[in-house]
Known about the structure:
The model has no long low-confidence stretch (mean pLDDT 89). 12% of the residues lie in helices and 33% in strands. It has one helix at 73-82; strands at residues 3-5, 11-14, 19-22, 39-43, 51-55, 61-66. By secondary structure, the chain is mainly beta. The chain has one domain (3-82). It has a 6-stranded antiparallel sheet, with no helix packed on it.
Amino acid sequence: MKIRTHAESHVVELDDGSQWQIFPGDLATTLSWKPETDLRLEQSLDAMSSHVLVNTADQSRVRVIAADKTWPDGEVKNALKGG
C-alpha cells in the first residue's frame, strides 16, 4: 500500500482509503515516509494498538489505530514514560 495523504503528522491515509492514527511515540519513525513509501498493514498483538504499519523497505514499524478511535490516555502516558 502507498500513502495517499499524510498532511497531519499523526494521521495517515493509505491508497485503499483507510485512515490510521499513529501512536505519539512512533511519530519520529514516519518523518522519512514519502508518497512512494510502500507500507504493509498488519494486525497487532499489542494491547494498545489494533494494527501496525510496516515500511517494507526498512521493516520499521509504527503502532496505529483507526483514525476514528482514541488512544487510551493512561496507557499512552505509561508507554511514553517507559520509552
